[in-house]
């Protein structure tokens, strides 16, 4: 029988054939991240210049993995899921989801790992001390500032530990969703689960997703499909370029867009099966410095490295 | 204003690192900043295109090195199937998979050439000469062989002595225009498939 596809059908079939979503695996996400951070910070590895920092973050990632062994929080109800679908909103929206009070125990668990780590600078111990003394409402306010990426309100020193606690919370939820519960948003640059900007993108090499590019959520580690050679910031497709360090790692490149002058790193699992978006993005700080010199901005920050906004840096200089 | 702050926040420089959690937690950015002076940025592009061989029109990704924006000649070094393309899903047939050799082939035709009747040599000619000659020969042939009516008096307006083979990787728009041009001349033998 002759069969003619109607307009829209080709796109619909295409949508179904590509695994659109990869939800995080809570049993090994942070353990692999910790392992990768240690690997990248080792002598001779691409991240050796900031190896100490990577090792501290590896200890934090191990604490995240440990915390996930016991931590859980209630998932959205059927009504809440239906409401998100109706309005095309993320299911567990970072900016608006009511966090269970139990999350407030997580930062202390991150700090316990810092205390147990070797060669931790005084600054890191002080930051953890500061985190412990924060009143619940200060803690909640800091969490809100981090989740909204409101740079002016973020306490930069405690931010990585607090963000790690929030990541553990969101991964605990996202890992228990099923792909059919998660609808695509009409904004392809935001995580369909929590609405957060991606930290980097990764071209997967496993059988099911070979050659497909996914954006990796900086908060809940959900990965969602985005067509390659597309700007993850403005969805432009003209004047996309790929920058790498000459003679450096082939598995990490910066995907830049001359339309919006931003870039996000893109990792190739085919070149290195161990690439991990948060770890490789953090360890390739040199690429950020070069991209910045070349006139590009990051599409969004790394959840484990926060920066004081320029005008606050200026204030602190004039105050001293 | 908020946007300016946000963009500034997302630039990673020596100055911004001084106010980063890396430094505030007691680590030094010195090694990272020193290392960068040794490094050079390389730029590459990936371009989406359609395989030119047959009418299946598989999507391909072409990888090239070099910076087109700085007048440097970019050079394609790898071609593979486009995984996002709904037709071929990243796969290519053996001919398509060897496209890179097609591009860099020393015998690739890059300009019009003409071989005169009886000659064993190809000679390069300009596009103007080539198009002028084709148009002239087409007109001569059409004037001699165009059939407006059959002996029975049936109106047909056909031109059967010339055919046309167009490109299989053409877009819908190019296909439409080709069709309009060729059919309006009365040509009936017309194909867009290279029959690989």
Question: H/E series of chain B, N to C?
Answer: HHHHEEEHHEEHEEHE
The major sheet of chain A is characterized as: 8 strands, mixed
Query: CATH H-level name of the largest domain in chain A... which superfamily?
Result: FdhE-like domain
Overall number of structural domains of chain B = 3
CATH class of the largest domain in chain A: Alpha Beta
Question: What Rg of chain A, in angstroms, do the CA atoms define?
Answer: 20 Å
Structure in words:
The complex is a heterodimer of chains A (320) and B (196). With 320 residues, chain A is α+β, with helices and mostly antiparallel strands. Chain A has helices at 9-17, 29-41, 51-68, 78-87, 106-116, 122-133, 136-147, 159-174, 277-283, 285-293, 310-319; strands at residues 21-22, 198-203, 213-217, 223-225, 240-245, 252-257, 262-268, 297-298. Chain A is built from eleven helices and eight strands. In chain A, strands 1, 2, 3, 4, 5, 6, 7 and 8 form an eight-stranded mixed β-sheet that branches. Chain A starts with 8 loop residues before the first helix and ends with a helix. In chain B, the strands form three sheets. A three-stranded antiparallel β-sheet of chain B has the order 1-2-3. Chain B has three domains: 2-36, no CATH class; 44-104, 2-Layer Sandwich (Phosphorylase Kinase, domain 1), CATH 3.30.200.210; 146-191, no CATH class. With 196 residues, chain B is of the alpha+beta class. In chain B, helix 8 (172-185) links the parallel strand 7 and strand 8. The N and C termini of chain B lie far apart (59 Å).
């Amino acid at each position: 029988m002759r069969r003619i596809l109607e307009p829209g059908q080709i796109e619909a079939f295409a949508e179904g054939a590509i695994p659109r979503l990869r939800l995080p695996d809570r049993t090994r996400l942070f353990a692999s991240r910790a392992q990768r951070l240690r690997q990248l910070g080792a002598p001779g590895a691409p991240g050796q210049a900031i190896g100490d920092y990577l090792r501290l973050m590896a200890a934090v990632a191990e604490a995240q993995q440990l915390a996930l062994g016991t931590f859980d929080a209630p998932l959205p109800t059927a009504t809440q899921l239906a409401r998100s679908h109706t309005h095309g909103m993320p299911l567990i929206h970072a900016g608006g989801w009511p966090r269970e009070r139990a999350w407030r125990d997580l930062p202390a668990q991150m700090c316990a790992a810092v205390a147990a780590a070797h060669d931790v600078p005084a600054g890191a111990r002080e930051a953890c001390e500061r985190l412990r003394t924060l009143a619940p409402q200060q803690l909640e306010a800091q969490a809100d500032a981090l989740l909204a990426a409101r740079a002016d309100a973020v306490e930069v020193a405690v931010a990585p530990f607090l963000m790690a606690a929030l990541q553990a919370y969101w991964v605990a939820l996202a890992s228990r969703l099923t792909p059919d519960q998660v609808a695509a948003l009409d904004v392809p640059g935001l995580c369909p689960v929590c609405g957060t900007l991606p930290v980097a993108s990764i071209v997967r090499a496993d059988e099911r997703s070979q050659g497909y590019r996914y954006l990796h959520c900086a908060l809940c580690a959900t990965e969602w499909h985005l067509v390659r050679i597309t700007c993850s910031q403005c969805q432009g497709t003209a004047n996309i370029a790929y920058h790498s360090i000459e003679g450096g790692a082939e598995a990490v490149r910066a995907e830049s867009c001359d339309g919006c002058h931003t870039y996000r790193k893109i990792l190739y699992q085919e070149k290195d099966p161990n690439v991990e978006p948060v770890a490789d993005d953090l360890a390739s700080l040199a690429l950020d410095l070069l991209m910045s010199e070349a006139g590009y901005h990051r599409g969004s920050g790394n959840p484990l490295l926060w920066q004081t906004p320029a005008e606050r840096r200026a204030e602190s200089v004039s105050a001293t | 204003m908020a946007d300016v702050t946000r963009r500034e926040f997302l630039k990673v420089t020596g100055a911004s690192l001084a106010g980063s959690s890396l430094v505030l937690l007691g680590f030094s950015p010195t090694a990272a900043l020193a290392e960068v002076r040794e490094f050079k940025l390389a730029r590459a592009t990936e371009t989406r295109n359609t395989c030119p061989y047959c009418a299946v029109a598989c999507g391909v990704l072409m990888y090239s090195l070099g910076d087109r924006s700085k007048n440097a000649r970019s050079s394609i070094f790898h071609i593979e199937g486009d995984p996002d393309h709904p037709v071929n899903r990243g796969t290519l047939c053996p001919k398509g998979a060897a496209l890179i050799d097609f591009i860099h082939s020393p015998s690739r035709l890059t300009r019009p050439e003409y071989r005169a009747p009886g000659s064993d040599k190809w000679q390069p000619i300009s596009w103007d000469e080539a198009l002028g000659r084709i148009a002239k020969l087409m007109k001569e042939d059409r004037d001699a062989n165009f059939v407006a009516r059959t002996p029975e008096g049936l109106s047909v307006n056909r031109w059967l002595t010339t055919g046309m083979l167009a490109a299989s990787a053409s877009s819908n728009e190019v296909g439409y225009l080709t069709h309009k041009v060729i059919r309006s001349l009365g040509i009936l033998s017309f194909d867009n498939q290279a029959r690989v």
